[in-house]
Amino acid sequence: MSTLVEPLRLVLLAETPDWAELLREQLSALGSPSPLITAPSWEAASNLFDDHASGLLLSTPARLPEPQQCPLPIVLLLDEEPVEEPVGVSDWLVRGSLNLDILRRCLRYVREQGNLKHTLQRLAEQDPLTGIANRQGFQTLLAARLAECGGRGLVLGHLDLDNFRHANDALGYQAGDRLILQVVARLKGLLQPCDQIARLGSDEFALLLDARRDPQRVERLAERVTEVLGEPYWVDGESLLIGCSLGLAHARAGEGADPLLWHAHIAMQQAKSQQGCVFHVYDERLNRSARSQADLEGELRRALRRDELELHYQPRLCLKSGRIVGLEALVRWQHDERGLLSPNEFVPLAEETGLIVPLGYWVISRALRDMQWLRGRGLPALHMAVNLSFRQFQDSQLLPTLSRLIEERGVDAQWLEFELTETAVMRRSDQVQQTMLALGRLGVRFSLDDFGTGFSSFVHLNSLPITLLKIDRSFVGGMGERAENRQLVRAMINLAHNLNLEVVAEGVENIEQLDMLRQYGCDQVQGYLISKAIPLAELARFLVFGLRQPLLAGS
User: Fold this and answer.
1) Which one of 25, 427, 449, 462 is most buried, by most CB atoms within 10 A?
2) Residues 269 and 371 in one domain
3) Residue 292: inside a domain, yes or no?
4) Pick from 100, 124, 148: which residue ends a domain?
5) Claim to verify: residue 160 and residue 20 sit in the same structural domain
6) Do 256 and 387 belong together in one domain?
7) What CATH number did the domain enclosing 36 receive?
8) In the 8-state DSSP scheme, what is residue 7?
9) What is the DSSP letter of 259?
10) CATH of residue 213
11) If you read the UniProt record, what top EC class would you report for this enzyme, in one word (predicted)?
């Protein structure tokens, strides 16, 4: 009879010894090797054994643990048949009807239920294709390993296959499965018994590496992983190269599973950004910098929604008439904590994240509104220059949006000027030319900003509807000290005039520079000598009262 049930560790919770005597008698008659352990409560009994999967709790209603407190299957011990089926237990036994057959069936049922639960748990935590742990199983495993060693000496690797989806699409899912099996086989061949591997997703894997005895082995292993996975695969007679990106994160004392998984994921993304079969080790300093950038991006998005940006305007002086003939609109960000931020502190971030497009539309809309405001106060019409990003220049909504804004503000488009950089103009010249011509038909004109810092072809520039060239401040600022700068500036002005283009010199800060530029025939200047970039209200006062025209006008 001893083969009827597998040994179970039986825990009895009862107020009196009657149940213990009865159960021991029945178990003995069954020939069961399972010991019956009596305890006053589940709290006291839970410390008696570690493997709850091989245990069974028998309890009277008065000693029954709270729901979810006990992980063992529970058999309820009753003095009489219940009116309704008990809830929250695996089975029940009634004192008056207890015999060998009933006890045998109860133990077998509980054992089978336990085996079924264990199988379902295993299936839920195991990848059906490879037999290794899946994401759910790995998270359980990772938490247990971290608790076991306190995070010391463990390194988590997050591995992502490159171009796996293309192979899957080209050869089919069955071939993709065979490819995954080859990847797992290669990884298993590199790992030691103390390491674990799991499949986190279609083409993502986790490697839990034990580096307690040899901290240097992790990077050696990472190099081997990227080398081995970078070698060709043979699937259905086809040779495939897929590569991989591996991120590594060292566990730290007191750190849970979630932060470690996130750090390994960040490192993997950094490895993927470098392209090729590479690995990257998580660095907290780099992550802090990334978080800072992410925080700033979120703040910039909110600033756009809340209208926390503002435009300042730098006047442009005509050297022949001594009058202000244009303005350059420069965006500023009134940050709650960092104060007034200049464009170079957030515009590069906007370029990188794509926010430059909505930011550019905000600038255009605000500049047109301010043009209308100035004209409404009786001030003469001035050219309004707005810096246009190449990303916005490529936006399909630029032309309709600009048409709508011009119509809404009721301004004459001929006074709107877009500043483009040399780099933007020289890229994809056919598209650039078509877009500029379309905008030009609205009346908008164009200037080339920072001229001299790029690689423009004058023949190419002559084919574009450009009205002005702006000489970069780096050339203007060096005219007083370097003859080469003076010669370059003079040559730029002459060449521009030969192309029937006006010239604006940026960064003019003293009378000597102004005199040289006037001597060279420069048309317009802007810089601190004329005025720094100023808010709209201050600009209005400057245009009415602050001009030093007698000083700056030519003789």
Assistant:
1) 449
2) no
3) no
4) 124
5) no
6) no
7) 3.40.50.2300
8) -
9) H
10) 3.30.70.270
11) hydrolase
- The residue segments making up the domain with residue 162 are 135-282
Query: Do 22 and 165 reside in the same domain of the chain?
Result: no
Q: Per residue in 165-194, is it b (16+ CB within 10 Å) or e — as a string?
A: eebbeebeeebbebbbeebbeebeebbeee
DSSP state string for 359-418: HHHHHHHHHHHHHHHHHHTTPPP-EEEEE--HHHHT-TTHHHHHHHHHHHHT--GGGEEE
Which residues 6+ apart lie within 8 Å of 59 measured at CB?
12, 13, 14, 42, 65, 74, 75, 76, 77
The amino acid that residue 94 corresponds to is V
Amino acid occupying residue 3? T
| Residues near 547 by beta carbon (within 8 Å), at least 6 away in sequence | 323, 324
Is residue 539 one of the residues assigned to a domain? yes
Quick check: helix, strand or coil at residue 151?
Answer: coil
pTM of the model: 0.52
**How far is residue 179's CA from residue 168's CA, in Å, rounded to a whole number?**
9
Residue 128: CA count within 13 A, CB half-sphere: 5
Contact 470, 502 (CB under 8 A): no
Alpha helices in 276-341 (DSSP H): 284-306
Encode 12-46: b = buried (16+ Cβ within 10 Å), e = exposed. bbbeeeebeebbbebbeebebebebebbeebeebb
How far is CA 520 from each of CA 467, 517, 529, rounded to the nearest angstrom? 19, 5, 18
Report the distance separating Cα 503 and Cα 522, nearest Å: 6
Please check whether residue 195 lies inside any domain of the structure: yes
Rounded (10°) CA dihedral 539, 541, 545, 548: -20
Mean pLDDT, consecutive 10-residue segments, the chain of 555 residues? 55 92 89 83 76 76 86 89 86 90 86 69 76 87 82 90 77 86 93 89 91 87 91 83 89 85 87 79 68 74 87 95 93 86 84 86 94 91 91 84 90 92 64 83 88 56 83 87 89 90 93 94 94 93 70 46
Q: 111 and 144 in one domain?
A: no
Q: Is the dihedral of CA 483, 484, 489, 492 positive or negative?
A: positive
**520 φ, ψ (degrees, to nearest 5):** -80, -5
Domain CATH for 350: 3.20.20.450
Instruction: Give Cβ neighbours of residue 300 (< 8 Å, ≥ 6 apart).
Output: 333, 346, 349, 350, 355, 359
CA-to-CA distance for 208 and 264, rounded, in angstroms? 11
Does one domain contain both 226 and 104?
no
**Co-location of 316 and 199 in the same domain:** no
Give how many domains the chain has, as a whole number.
3
Q: Is residue 331 part of a domain?
A: yes
